[in-house]
Amino acid sequence: MTNMEKYKKTFMEAFDIKDENEVEALEYMGIEAWDSVGHMTLVALLEDAFDIMMDTDDIIDLSSYAKGIEILKNNYNVEF
């Protein structure tokens, strides 16, 4: 499984999304499931999936699917 597949799967699992085409447009508070509790669930799943520990600033900055890719690439050396 590629890192992109793993990343997408993590979002789908965190927010119980069945259609992978819906994932790329996700933004914080853009769907009911992505509230503060959903956000922390997502962070925990991302940390497990990529074996990282996210900094508080990165957790706060994680505001969309696209922003998450940017954070993981730039701050945690995850290759997509």
UniProtKB/TrEMBL annotation:
Domain of life: Bacteria
Alphabetical list of InterPro entries matching this protein: ACP-like_sf
Protein name in UniProt: Acyl carrier protein
Organism annotation: Mediterraneibacter hominis
